[in-house]
Amino acid sequence: MDNNRTMFGIPDEEFIRDKVPMTKSEVRAIAISKLRLNPTSRVLDIGCGTGSITVECGLICNQGEVTAIDQKEEAVNITRKNVNKFELNNVNIIEGSAPNDIPKKNYDSIFLGGGSRHIDNIIDFATDHLVPEGVFVANTILIDSTYKILAALEGRFKDIDVAMVQVSKGHKIAGWMMKANNPIYIISARLM
Amino acid sequence: MDNNRTMFGIPDEEFIRDKVPMTKSEVRAIAISKLRLNPTSRVLDIGCGTGSITVECGLICNQGEVTAIDQKEEAVNITRKNVNKFELNNVNIIEGSAPNDIPKKNYDSIFLGGGSRHIDNIIDFATDHLVPEGVFVANTILIDSTYKILAALEGRFKDIDVAMVQVSKGHKIAGWMMKANNPIYIISARLM
């Protein structure tokens, strides 16, 4: 790995985009910080979308590996383009649905990038496949998913934490005008 | 360095605290992401406070170095305690005022952790001592500092970006109640 390239904090505009949703840089930074990564971490990114979380985890975990899954073909394709752009060789990308098509390996950190119709099954999977003290992180926009994830973590996970983050970005008009992004919930917890 | 310890995303409660202010984990994650660090970065942390930014930069830049400065003796002491706790040997801590007492070296990334009576002088210093494309990041709570920093960056820095971040944290009462932290501005820019 080139020691002089940015290892964390890739600006949004450096990712190849499409119609696929992307977690914006500020929220991405928080989610990644909650994943408690180290260079050897084995990370699972469920619902990888554009692949921005996949790429940033791949850069940090340069002696570990990232498994990325999305059910949409176009998300898998764009994630692959971004993984290639950042010259990562530690990422495994899967087109399929979670949790059924996720490789049944051990993971140190699992990220769920949005809601799912299978929240309970995904958290069952996390409970079975995270290492002890392994970290589960989810970003949600719906109150419904937020509530369901918090409820499903209870009793099996510890250090359950939820942050609601509302970012406004400055736009230079005559002066600086702040324009609001939608509030995002970032949930994190460790397996007991 | 131990490859298995968390390299980024240290929870707030793992830092030794005192009456010195500390940037909370979510805002810290964003600020660090804006610093565009790599393992060899030379970072300057102005107003290091508790030393949480210093420590996280020291962990990421394990082949680089961090210079931390604060004018308060108790901030310098607590930063030193935290640097020792995390067993970092790439951090230089200075008790003194910015910019006068900052070592006149080249830096890849400079972080200003709050306002200062010397904003213009600090940004002059950053202009003189950042490498080309080097990154300046500031966290502010006052509109006044936010405005002054944005105005001082203009014309000498590019990619000027400002995010206002408002984090609410969940507290488990009967159910999850969100309690608001104060909004923080995170300004970032690169030297032209």
Describe the structure.
- The structure is a homodimer.
- With about 190 residues, chain A is of the alpha/beta class.
- The first copy, chain A, has a single domain, classed as Rossmann fold (3-Layer(aba) Sandwich).
- Chain A contains five helices and eight strands.
- Chain A has helices at about 25-35, 50-60, 75-85, 120-130, 145-155; strands at about 40-45, 65-70, 90-95, 105-115, 130-140, 155-170, 175-180, 185-190.
- Chain A has an eight-stranded mixed sheet with strand order 3-2-1-4-5-8-6-7, with helices on both faces.
- In chain A, strand 4, helix 4 (about 120-130) and strand 5 form a beta-alpha-beta unit.
- Chain A starts with about 25 loop residues before the first helix and ends with a strand.
- The relative contact order of chain A is 0.15.
- The interface of A and B includes residues 172 and 178 of A.
What is the secondary structure topology, with strand pairs?
2 copies of one chain form a homodimer.
Chain A: H1 25-34, E1 42-46, H2 52-60, E2 65-70, H3 73-85, E3 91-95, E4 107-113, H4 119-129, E5 130-140, H5 143-153, E6 157-172, E7 176-180, E8 184-191
Parallel strand pairs in A: 1-2, 1-4, 2-3, 4-5
Antiparallel strand pairs in A: 5-8, 6-7, 6-8
